[in-house]
Structure prediction request, 570 residues.
Amino acid sequence: MSTLDANWFTEIHADAGSAFSLRIRKKLVDEQTPYQRIEVFETTDFGNFMVIDGCTMVSARENFIYHEMMTHPVLYTHAAPKNVVIVGGGDCGTLREVLRHPEVESVVQVEIDERVTRLAEQYFPELCELNDDSRATLIFGDGIQWMKDAARESLDVVIIDSTDPIGPAEGLFSQPFYEDCLRALRPGGMIVQQSESPLLHPHILRAMHSAMRSAGYADVKTLQFPQMIYPSGWWSATIARKGEKIAGLREAGVVAKPFETRYYTADIHRAAFVLPAFLQQALAQ
Amino acid sequence: MSTLDANWFTEIHADAGSAFSLRIRKKLVDEQTPYQRIEVFETTDFGNFMVIDGCTMVSARENFIYHEMMTHPVLYTHAAPKNVVIVGGGDCGTLREVLRHPEVESVVQVEIDERVTRLAEQYFPELCELNDDSRATLIFGDGIQWMKDAARESLDVVIIDSTDPIGPAEGLFSQPFYEDCLRALRPGGMIVQQSESPLLHPHILRAMHSAMRSAGYADVKTLQFPQMIYPSGWWSATIARKGEKIAGLREAGVVAKPFETRYYTADIHRAAFVLPAFLQQALAQ
Prediction:
């Protein structure tokens, strides 16, 4: 049986009885902010790697899958996404992918902890390379309050790119927040939220579907993708739409997109919404 | 930073700089066979769990994904799979899924290490529940030699369910073995082989595609699925077909199948063949 020495970072998923480790070269940051503890490591094989409150957040090597799948499916489903809000998303990888879309006219990112973004600028500069885009506004504050105050029918897409539904992000996984988002969305608008592991957390997915439907969205769908550094290596995002079915992929737009993706394609878009039998059953109403 | 105590089994993926752990309740078996070291653990959350030469092999909780995806895609692509061979597959989970197909008339399983099967019968009885089916023949011997000796055009499907391409299974990832399989297949016959992680091992996938094409197969395709206990949590299988394109899903057969699946559906079948942009590029000829 192998033993991990001090050259490894390990996240124990106590509820799941599993753990994931990356081999580190050195610790670059260990900082307690008013909100959470942030660590940044240099790994041997995954580039720089950020950890918040002991939970893996982002590695340079494989974050592209998560960030592409949190953004392009919803942006290429909306007919004309002009005004986008990101709640959380402090590493700015989601922001970068949104800003690649020329049809987007404004993106407001509301991250509670400015230090996440400042450390990302320093240690994940590639994720922050579009932060100076004139269409982007970075706000450091409470996303729940921001959404309460948002003008009615002023947004097309809300991307909820938060930590897990325990701790500071808990309120982002609740019906009142979904209702505030619904009010702020224009007809046909969508929210998308990271929704944990299909294998380990079907109960969270089920509760999220239920809360989104109860909040008044017309349709709720989950898509899934691999995510090596998150529990089980398999992750999901859940989309809810105001007044319409989640359909209408702008395939010509995907084919002609003026930027490269490493994971997302039109075929991946369709395939990601296909759920395995056990998850279909878990989510059946 | 968390530390794993003696209550955890850890597999270090030294080449990848990552590690995966399961929390164990007790060790049930630790046995050196003529071929390899086999350990079986009782875990806290994943049921019984087999390890060979330090590498995670099978857990009771999530092996269904692997075993369904190694069998049903190829069996529902073949128009009439009558004669099937499994090379490796000692835990018998693949054998069970093959035997669920009434159209299959014979399955020969050639596993080099009888102890894998005997321990599976003891600790994974659910995987072995169809071992007494009259259509099944269990041979304990060398799959490479068996395939050399196989009658020409006598098989419809060969499932290569082996350990990684280092150590005893190395010869199963080589052009000469693929040529022997090709000779033993009837026209339209297929081989399917586990083909490692899309994220960590695209070079292995690339080499496998090349070797299968060089061996003379008409078409080679990779499908992918989540596999929590294998490196990166994301795994693949690669199919090669004799004389025909890999196409022709028997969708009516899937819909009317006389058994339940927990992962596989006709939609999952199609979705699994959709590869992300980076892997398409890696596999482009």
Remarks:
- Chain B has two domains: 8-59, 63-283.
- The CA atoms of residues 153 and 185 of chain B lie 5 Å apart.
- Residues 63-283 of chain B form a domain with the Rossmann fold fold (CATH 3.40.50.150).
